[in-house]
Design goal:
This protein has 322 residues and is an alpha/beta fold. It is built from twelve helices and twelve strands. Helix content is 47%, strand content 19%.
Length: 322
């Protein structure tokens, strides 16, 4: 078999189509040339390797891809290893919140230990991150753990973040029961992440078990937007308790009792490189610190509630982040 033809087929299978393959190849090849050469491969083998529209590998194509993928996927890493570069490279997939609030500081520390550190970041949820790790486009991932990982991946739990409600500071609600009982929830606008997000689903599942219903009035793309809209009095927001998420004075936090927490973990394939292992250890230390801060943060909220109950001024009804 022609090795170049095999390489072209590898990119087609990896990126699920000839057009996507041409966009992602490390060198320029025109689509007609790719089509013609892969057709020669199919003629040589006497089988069809994939369906064109919609794209789908045939049984023969899956078998061939499974055999050649480790070789072609590993080639860039072998080159980097020979050049002495691989030991200081991280290709990380993860959520925006982690990359914005935690990763910059961790990478600064890593650069002290690995001066030639090269970093590639891709924003992704769990399933996309798994695909990136499985096919070698990422060597490390952090994610909200929505489902069981696919086989062949290593996993480390990092932290569980409690669910909370965010309410405008001017409201009279002092605890979650004030909102969730007596039909109050249905009368208030709920602001939350999209229904596909685990945060939303954990909340709604618990409400269903309690035979309660709270329709969503507004779906937004980030925790920051939830905070922003609550601060403008547009509703009650569903969020997580994180001391590092800025909360303005116009917003108060109500912890949700007896609701599940949001699990976050890291996963990878094979043996971790020294730099990836160093990042994992840094993430574990950061998670431990956040857990301690969250515990302290919760105590501050309890103290504040007692103070409000004792008749403190309306201006004191907020919690500053750590």
């Amino acid at each position: 078999m022609n090795t170049h033809h095999l390489e072209l087929f590898y990119y087609i299978a990896r990126y699920e189509g000839i057009v996507s393959a041409c966009r992602n190849m490390p060198y320029g090849v025109q689509q007609p040339a790719v089509s013609a050469q892969v057709l020669k491969l199919e003629e040589y083998l006497g089988v069809k390797l994939f369906e064109r529209k919609p794209f789908r590998l045939t049984t023969a194509g899956e078998r061939l891809y499974g055999y050649i993928a480790p070789f072609f996927t590993g080639m860039p890493h072998l080159e980097a290893e020979i050049r002495g570069q691989l030991s200081q490279e991280i290709r990380l997939a993860g959520p925006t919140l982690m990359m914005r609030d935690h990763l910059p500081e961790l990478l600064q520390d890593l650069r002290i230990q690995f001066p030639r550190l090269k970093v590639t970041l891709q924003e992704a949820g769990q399933r996309i991150a798994e695909q990136l790790v499985q096919r070698g486009d990422a060597n490390f991932a952090v994610s909200v753990m929505e489902e069981t990982l696919t086989s062949g991946l290593q996993f480390s739990a990092l932290i569980e973040l409690p669910l909370v409600l965010l309410v405008p500071a001017a409201t009279s609600f002092q605890k979650d029961l004030d909102i969730l009982r007596d039909g109050n929830a249905g009368k208030l606008d709920l602001i939350t992440l999209p229904s596909k997000e685990l945060l939303h689903r954990l909340f709604q599942r618990t409400l269903e078990k309690r035979k309660q219903n709270w329709p969503v009035a507004m779906e937004v793309s980030s925790i920051d937007l939830i905070v922003e809209y609550v601060s403008h009095g547009l509703g009650v927001g569903l969020s997580i308790l994180s001391p590092r998420t800025p909360i303005p004075k116009s917003v108060r936090i109500l912890p949700l009792k007896d609701f599940p927490s949001l699990p976050i973990g890291a996963f990878w394939k094979g043996k971790l490189s020294p730099v990836s292992e160093a990042l994992l250890n840094a993430l574990r230390e950061r998670a431990k610190l956040i857990t301690e801060e969250t515990s302290t943060f919760s105590e501050k909220i309890k103290i504040l509630k007692r103070a409000v109950g004792d008749g403190k001024s309306q201006g004191d009804r907020h919690v500053k982040t750590c």
